[in-house]
């Protein structure tokens, strides 16, 4: 791929601190050294409306935004594919 | 292709403030979600029914378990009751076998259930972090050794799962985390230090809550100071 999207701030994890899958996703990104922003849905309930807009009304956690791709409760394999598609991995 | 998709997504997302609430807006949202789901399927084969991957994901469609906690658990500073429980291989494991190193006791409700699958996946993916801190992690539930064996194989869990099966929940009861009306334990964590004292205790306020793993690491790190 010739064109690479900027990596900064292009990954956002919407989740909660007590959700195991959100933790799994965050730790995975941290191990890979991929910068991401974490939006705690309990601290930022306004973000839920945005998630609903992206998902046909299905706000669940974790939802991971990877440069234009919206992944609802992705497996690590799906997340990896998405990161590769976007040139972040 | 991926770049074009991303640009179109961004444009869609930016249109939100201009659209009034109503069925048209909802329809657009649903269409966008469909496009995202189709895109997500790119280059992946769906797991064949009955296969290992399908079995691994079965918990996602299983009944939820989200009740509030009903037990307080044992407080920090109390001695951890010793116990002997069989692992999936039928070998008896004693808590006191680990004297001299920290132990993380993970009481969880049931093998195969949604929250437990995710929680133990998380700990499995962090095994190196536990090992780096010299800590032994032990899972405990009321399931039989055979259920433990099958579940550990499917989820690739490499740390011991102990069977608090008979008398059912006896160890969970001694740690004050057995849910008498349900017949399984709370989701609870204890960090036991090398001398057998409880140094960290956490009973999840709701069964589907898993405390931040950093909290667990901090508790283990505090033992070394």
UniProtKB/TrEMBL annotation, chain A:
Q: Which Gene3D superfamilies match?
A: Glutaredoxin
Query: By its UniProt entry, which Pfam families does this protein fall under?
Result: Glutaredoxin
| SUPFAM superfamilies, A to Z | Thioredoxin-like
InterPro entries, per this entry? Glutaredoxin, Thioredoxin-like_sf
The Glutaredoxin domain covers 11-70
The protein, known as: Glutaredoxin
UniProtKB/TrEMBL annotation, chain B:
List UniProt keywords, sorted A-Z. Redox-active center
Q: Which Pfam families match?
A: AhpC-TSA
- The keyword Chloroplast belongs to this UniProt entry's keyword annotation: no
User: Coiled-coil ranges per the record?
Assistant: none
Q: What name does this protein carry?
A: Alkyl hydroperoxide reductase/ Thiol specific antioxidant/ Mal allergen
**Source organism:** Allomeiothermus silvanus (strain ATCC 700542 / DSM 9946 / NBRC 106475 / NCIMB 13440 / VI-R2)
The molecular function GO annotations come to:
antioxidant activity; oxidoreductase activity
The UniProt record lists the Thioredoxin domain at 74-225
Q: Does the entry feature the keyword Lipid biosynthesis, yes or no?
A: no
